[in-house]
């Protein structure tokens, strides 16, 4: 699988796009920017293709990288469009950032909530546990590689997302299903925001 759609042209979407392109993936990026601005951004990312949200969502693997309050608005028009595509949920359930405030999820996994809004997609949680400040440092720190977690209910989809992460140079670690693993790595969970590094023969992080 070489094509990747990215819904969201903010900091997270841009960072993933750059690394995916460097790893040899063809990227279509969509966002709310005016078409001319999105075209310029796509070129700056190293050769992404600008597109509408439906263009990005039509690909076999799609990254959702929008703000939590915008998810329903973005996914609602696509509710009949999913045909077993992999939808990578890279979001975190912040309703505001200044000050940081998490949504009330009643103990649910945020990604399980996303999955209900994307019927027919295979939702996988990834790219959300590490801060963007650490993610954009790149996959390597000396001889160690940064860890990104992968959680989902579909083993084949988890494997494909893990392969994307490894192609980018990071270390992918499978972390259970969408509900259990998702809650561990999403904002507010015990693994959220941690910069975990693994070297050869090492199992230590910081």
Count the E strands.
Answer: 12
CATH superfamily: NAD(P)-binding Rossmann-like Domain
Low-confidence stretches: 202-206
Report strand %.
Answer: 15-25%
Number of DSSP helical runs: 8
Give the C-level CATH assignment: Alpha Beta
Computed structural class = alpha/beta
Rounded to an integer in angstroms, the radius of gyration calculated over CA atoms is: 16 Å
- Helix-strand topology string: EHEHEHEHEEEHEHEEHEHE
- Mean pLDDT, rounded to whole units? 94
CATH-level-2 architecture:
3-Layer(aba) Sandwich
Query: Which term fits the overall shape?
Result: globular
Looking at the structure, the CATH topology is Rossmann fold
- Percent helix: 25-40%
| Gap between N and C termini | 33 Å
Pfam families: F420_oxidored
Keywords: Oxidoreductase
InterPro entries: NAD(P)-bd_dom_sf, P5C_Rdtase_cat_N, STEAP_metalloreductase
Protein name: NAD(P)-binding domain-containing protein
């Amino acid at each position: 699988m070489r094509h990747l759609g990215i819904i969201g042209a903010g900091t997270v979407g841009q960072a993933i796009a750059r690394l995916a392109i460097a790893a040899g993936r063809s990227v279509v990026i969509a966002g709310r920017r005016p078409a001319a601005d999105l075209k310029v951004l796509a070129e700056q990312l190293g050769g992404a293709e600008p597109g509408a949200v439906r263009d990005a969502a039509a690909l076999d693997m799609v990254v959702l990288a929008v703000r939590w309050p915008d998810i329903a608005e973005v996914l609602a028009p696509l509710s009949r469009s999913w045909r077993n595509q992999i939808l990578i949920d890279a979001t975190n359930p912040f309703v505001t950032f200044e000050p940081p405030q998490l949504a009330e999820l009643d103990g649910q996994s945020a990604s399980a909530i996303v999955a209900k809004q994307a019927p027919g997609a295979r939702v996988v949680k990834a790219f959300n546990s590490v801060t963007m400040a650490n993610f954009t440092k790149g996959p390597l720190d000396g001889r160690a590689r940064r860890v990104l977690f992968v959680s989902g209910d579909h083993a084949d989809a988890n494997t494909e997302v893990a392969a994307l992460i490894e192609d980018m140079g990071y270390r992918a670690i499978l972390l259970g299903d969408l509900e259990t693993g998702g809650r561990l790595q999403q904002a507010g969970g015990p693994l959220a925001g941690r910069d975990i590094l693994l070297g050869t023969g090492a199992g230590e992080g910081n």
